[in-house]
Each structure stands twice: as C-alpha cells, then as structure tokens.
Amino acid sequence: MLNHAWIIPLIPAVSFFLIIGLGKKMPMKGSEIGLVSIFTSLVLALITAVQWINHTNAAVTGGEAGASDGAAHEAIVKPVIKVFTWWQSGGVKFGWGSHIDGLAVALLVVVTIISSCVHVFSLEYLRGDRRYTHYFAALSLFTAGMLNLVVAENTIQLLLGWEIMGLCSFMLIGHWWEEEANSRAALKAFFTTRTGDIGLLVGISIVYFATKSFSIETINQTVTDGKVSHLVILMGAIALFIAVIGKSGQFPLHTWLPDAMAGPTPVSALIHAATMVVAGVYLVARLYPVFVSGFSIGTNVTIGGLNPMALIGGITIVIAAGLAFVQNDIKKVLAYSTVSQLGYMIMGLGVGAWTPAVFHIFTHAFFKALLFLGAGSIAHSGSHHSFDMKESMGGLRKYMPITFWTFIVGTLALSGIFPFAGFFSKDEILAFAGHHGYHSFMYIGLVGAFMTAAYMTRCVWLTFFGEYRGGHAAHDDHHTVALVAHDADVHADHHDAHAEPHESPWLITGPLILLAVLATVVGFLNAAPFKIEKFTEWVQPRIAFPEISVPDFSWLEAGESLAIAMAGILIAAALWSKDLGRLRGLTKRNKLAHAGYTFLWNKYYLDHLYEGIIVAGITGPIARGAYWINQKLIDGTVNGVGIGAREAGKWVYKNIDQKIVDGAVNGAGMAASETGGLLRGLQTGKVQQYGALLFGSSAIIGLIFVIVIK
Amino acid sequence: MPINAFLLLAAFLFCTGLYGVLARRNAVLVLMSVELILNAVNINLVAFGTRFQGDVTGQVFALFVIAIAAAEVGVGLAIVLLIHRNKSSINVDELDSMKG
After folding, report:
1. For residue A478, what is the DSSP state?
2. A59: Cβ–Cβ under 8 A, 6 or more apart, which residues?
3. Confidence class for position B100, pLDDT limits 50, 70, 90
C-alpha cells in the first residue's frame, strides 16, 4: 500500500460521481455508496499505517546495526514517493501521485476515521433530509479533497485538494440554503477562504521559481540545503502563510469559521476536526523547511522570537478563547475553541515544535469531532433541533447519559486534563515554547489553557446540569390548553415523538463512544511522562528537515499547566453552578464589564470592520469620488465648451447650415430614403437573422478566398 | 496522434454552437452556444499548438479566450437578466425593437 496510497483519495472521488449519478435510485439514497467507499479508504489507510510503521522500524533497527549506539534516530527513513505524469506543458511536467511519510500517514488515519464516524452519524442525523443524496455526495468529495491534499506529491496536487475542499465546504455549509442566513454563511466561508487562497497560488509560484520544482520532496530538500535566497523564501513563506490564515481560521480571517456552523452538525465535525481547517496547519507542517528558513524559526529567539507565525497563533489562542465565553450557541462555543486550538498548532509550528504541533492535530481531531457530534446528538434528541444552551438545554445529564459522558471525555481532553489526549499534546507544545526561549508564547499558551478549561466548563454546565429549559418553556403562559396543543404539535412534527429529551439511537451514540475511547487513549502514543515516543518515532521526518531537539519532560511544568486548567474548571464551575448573586449579572450592572461583554458579543467588531468599513469604504468613496469628478470636472468642462459652441453654432447655422449643407443633405436624404426602402426588408430586428446573414456572407467570402487563393 | 481528430471535434462543436446561436429561441441557450463556438476555437488553437513542441503560444491564447469567454458570459447573463425584468421573457424572437 505504501506505493499505492494514491488510490485512497480516488475511492471517495469515484464514490462522489456514483452517488451523484445513481444515488437517488439506490435503496438507501446513495448513502451506502458513501459508507462503503469511506470504509474501504479507512481499511486501506490503516494498512498503509501498519506498513509505514514496519518500514520505519526496519530502517531504525537497520540503522542501529550499521551505526554505533545512539545513532538509531539518525537512520534514514525516506518517504515513499510514487508519481505519474498528469500533464505536461511547455516542457514542465506536472505529476500526480503520493508522497507517503509519517505526517501523511498520521493524517490519512485521522481523516478516514473521523470521516467514517461522520458518515455513520449522518445516516441518522439527516434521515429524511430533502437533499440526502447530495449531502452524501458532497461528504464523499470533501473527504476525497482532504485525502488528496494529504497524499499530495507536489504543490499543484495539494492545491487541487485545497480547492476541492473550499468548494465542498461551501456546498455543505449552505446545505440548507433556503434560509438566507445559511447561504450567507456559505458565501462568507467561501469568500474568506478564497482571500487566503490567492496567497497559496502566489506562494506556490514563488516557491516554484525559487526551487524550480513543484515536488514537495525537492522543495524541502532544496530549501534545507540553503540553496535559495532568503528573501525569496521569505516572500514565499508569507504568501503561503496568508493561505494558512484563511483556511485554518487564524486571526484576523477567523470570522468565517463560527458562521460555518450554519451547516449540518456532522459537517461541522468534519470541517473542524479532520478536513478544511486542518489543511492549513498541514500545509505548514508539509512545507516546514520553507517556513523555518523564511521566518527564521528557532534562530531569532534572541529578539523575543517575534516571527509572524508564532505571533498570529498566540493572538488567535487568546482572542478566540475570549469569544467562546459569550456564546449561547453550543456549536459556536466549540467553533471558537477550534479556532483557539488551531492557534496552538500554528504557534507550536511557529516556535519550532513540529512534532508536538502535528501530534496536537492528531489528538485534537478526535476530541473535537467527539464534541461536535455530541452537540449534534443533543440537538437531535434533546433540544428539538436548537443549539441554544440558555434557551433549550440544561439538565440533559439525566436524559442522555451516553452523550453526557462522552461529552465530558471530550471536554477534559480539550481542557488538557491528565490522562486524556489533549494533555500530552498541548503540554508538549508549551514545554517546547518554554525550552526554546519563547517564554512569552508559553505564557500565552497557559492563559489559553485556563480560558479553554473555563469556557468548556460553562458550556457543559449550561447544557447538562441545572433544570431542563427546553420544550415547554415557551408555552408557560398559555396554560394547560396550550400545553396539550403544544404536545400535539410536537407529536405531529417529530415522527418519533420526542417531547421529552431522550438518548439518541446507536447510529449516533456508536461514533460517540468510539471517538471517546480514541480521545482517551491516543495521547499515550506520545506520552512524554512515560518515555513513550512512538508518535515521534513514526512521524517525525529525518531527511530534508530542520533539527528538532525535544526538551526533557518535567512534571513540574506539566503540573503547572494541569493546575491552571483545573483552576479554570473549578472557577467556572463555581461561577455558573452556584448562585453567586454578585457575579451573576455583573455584565448588566457594571459598566466596564458590560462594555467588555458588548465588545466580545460583537466579535471585536471584526465583521463590522470587514463589511461596514472595508467593503463600504471601498465602494463608498469611489462612488462619491466618481460623482464629484462627474459633477465638477466633467460638467464644468462640458458647460464651458457648450457655451462656446453655442455661439459658434449660431453663426454656422445661419450661414453654412441653412444654405450649403441643407441642400446637400436633402439631396442625399432623398437618395438614401429610396435605397433604405429597398434594404428595409432585411432589418427585421431579429438578432438571429442578422447572425445567419453574417455567418452566411462570411462563409461565402471564405469560400471565394479558398477558391481564389488556390 | 493525428491532428485531424481534434479538428473534426472542433468542427463538430462549432457547428453545434452555430446551430444553437442561429436556431434556439432561449437567450440563455444562445449564450451557451456561443461558449461552444469559443471552445471549438480553443481546441483548434491547442491542437495546432502541439505542432510546435515547446511553444505554448497556442495554449496561452486559449487561456485568454477562456478568460474573455468568462467575462462575456458575465455581461451576457446580466443583459439577459435585465431583458427578463423588462419583458418577462427571454425569447430572442420577441426582441425586435431594432426593427427598421
């Protein structure tokens, strides 16, 4: 399979066309094709992973036998590359194939597992949807796009996967486009990521002209060897990083990601955990030498380590975490937490922590998919398809035990509580930042950890504890008669008649349980406290790659971040669980707190900035400027010329026009009128007849030319 | 590969497009047919371009045609939309206000 990993993205791609073509006629409306294809991809990806691990182990033991002890990690594990010529133009060959190394394998496994879970979940979640077939088709194509990006052998193939995902996210976010908000969200996601995509095109071009290659391996090798001018690579890295900011929802282009919640919940899980947003981080990890040498990562620590990547990542962590506090929509809380976690990954890559950042992609995928699917389960069975935590949730712990416990696992993993997956990956990023002199970023990360724990506690509290606020709440003032009517309504609306919240069916809880187990155990693949470094061993490249020195694990530092996260949970729990009268409603009484709340509620006014100021700013002044020029400049000139012309005109009229011209004109007019009468029949006003005459006459002229020239 | 096959394909596309332009009544279909004609030209350009290995002029030209075709469709559809607003019909036969 290592040599033929290019098949993996092809399977869902073919499935897309099969579903579009035949889906509606199938007994399960095409979803079975999607399921079979994604499971096949999953199996192939797992086989690839096993083979890669064997490949690595063989190389490492081989290296041990050859070299002296301690050199085991220097063993060369070459990526397995397979290329076909896709097309060639002007002497440049464009390849299509697979570039399989540890990074690609890790992502293949993640994407296929999450996508399989999402497929199964969607079977129940979207049952009876009016565009069920199209939904599964888009899901297949989405997965195909991400898998293609993951196995991409060259930057052009990577771009292809990247753009396919842009299209699919647009289709899926706007799945229920009948509501205007949804279609606006889809457009916003599309345009915002497109803004970044320009950077990708420019970046790929710059890197191509710098290294004379599209091949990822060659690019990395050339840049690592230092054969390229620093300035060029810096430009390339900046352009590529703009693409990453757009795709991975980094500040200041993160605004599309929370709006993308308009799509069906399983899609949110897919976008946030496995595809789309991970693509940006993956791009950085993939072309890491370009970024390292472009932004001088790891070499300019002395001046505070201010490289754009770490800085943007750090800002994103805190800004997004702040926004998560004021959301009432459970999916928006999770969306901002994704933005914040992506900030950790970008910051990790920015401070040189390649392996921890990639490991964080890996672990984050599992628990974030788990949380999103959990939110979907709540909306499906607990809160009448509403995502509002304050209005329609609360007390769901009793009704939905499986969802509750899996959600708790996801929350603990996200908050970085030992021994769940998030602990190991997040802690490693922070330890790395601290050990490599990026102290400021370590503190930002710790603040982020505190905020994460706190807002997730708030979210869990509002959803699962307290009194159930959904269902009948809206009808309290209509008394019993209304209640009966309401119940009848509910029975009519929902065929499975769930006036009471209840646990979801196994098609929904199954994926939840699987993901909860994974979110608990995958952390141990790279558990620094226990000297387990399997993930590092399998994934970290050892060829064409900057040096990564892993700091020793210290319980003290890990304890610090653990304590901070625990403090976050406890403080938040105290705040939202007990009736702390003074703190409750603080935002309504205290002016400063209220101002802060409003500021957060309006998302730092970034949307206003983009839509109100930038868009209006560009269109407004241009229109006004054009109007001014029209009124003052052009009209003035025209008027001046007009006055002069009028005087001249009077004279001309008297002497020339009346006497000389009129005579000639009248004569010519007579002649023209006679001829016109003849030709008038042709002017039917029908464009197509004109077209036919035009083509016919040019065909005749062409014929004459051919005959004459021959 | 002989160039004839490409030229035949292009000729077929051109004729299809021409038929559409001259005979269809629906303005949108007329626009689509214009696209067919343009693409027939593109095929010719690229096909003849293969005669000169290493020279991409033909392909570049085709790219320009594609870009212009996109702009043309943009303007064309806007016109059709306005016509539909004014006349609530996009039948090209009814558009004879240019009649002499």
Report:
1. G
2. A75, A76, A77
3. low
Closest-CA residue of B relative to A92 is B54
- Cβ pair A688:B96 closer than 8 A: no
With CA atoms as reference, report the closest residue to A456 among A566, A547, A556: A566
Indicate if the pLDDT at residue A398 is higher than 80.
no
pLDDT at A225: 80
Better-predicted residue by pLDDT, A360 or A465: A360
Q: Which of A91, A684, A691 sits opposite B54 (nearest CB)?
A: A91
pLDDT at residue B76 in the model: 92
pLDDT for A81: 81
* CA-wise closest residue to A499 among A478, A525, A468: A468
User: With left for phi above 0 and alpha for psi between -120 and 50, is residue A154 left, alpha or beta?
Assistant: beta
Q: In this structure, what are the phi and psi dihedrals at residue A30, rounded to the nearest 5 degrees?
A: 90, -15
Answer whether B98 sits within 8 Å of A685, measured CB to CB. Answer: yes
Q: What is the DSSP letter of A127?
A: T
Q: B22 vs A695: CB contact, 8 Å cut-off?
A: yes
Interchain CB distance below 8 Å, B56 and A688: no
What are the pLDDT digits (tens) for A403-431?
888 888 888 888 887 778 878 888 888 88
Spatial distance between the Cα atoms of A27 and A29, rounded to a whole number of angstroms: 6
Of A241, A397, A261, the closest CA to residue A324 belongs to A261
> Would you give the end-to-end CA distance of chain B in angstroms?
51
- Match 């187990």 to its residue by tokens: A517
Q: What angle do CA A579, A583, A586 make, to 5 degrees?
A: 125
Backbone angles phi, psi at A329, to 5 degrees: -90, 120
Q: How far is A589 from chain B (nearest CA, A)?
A: 54
d(CA A148, CA A164): 9
* A550 DSSP assignment: P
Distance CA A32, CA A282 (A): 30
How many of the other CB atoms lie within 10 Å of CB of A597?
16
pLDDT of A147 > 60? The answer is: yes
Q: For A289-340, what is each residue's pLDDT tens digit?
A: 888 887 777 665 544 556 788 888 888 888 888 887 777 788 888 888 888 8
Question: How many other C-beta atoms can be found within 10 angstroms of the C-beta atom of residue A593?
Answer: 14
User: In the predicted model, is pLDDT for residue A537 greater than 60?
Assistant: yes
Residues of B in contact with A680 (CB under 8 A): 100
HSE, side-chain direction, 13 A CA sphere, residue A703? 6
A526, A359 Cβ separation under 8 angstroms: yes
User: C-alpha B98: how far from its chain's center?
Assistant: 24
Of the partner residues B22, B97, B99, the one whose CB lies closest to the CB of residue A691: B22
Kindly tell me if the per-residue pLDDT of A476 is higher than 60. Answer: no
Nearest to A338 by CA among A241, A455, A420: A455
Rounded CA-CA distance A12/A112 in Å is: 10
H or E element in which residue A216 lies: helix A216-224
Q: Does the pTM exceed 0.95?
A: no
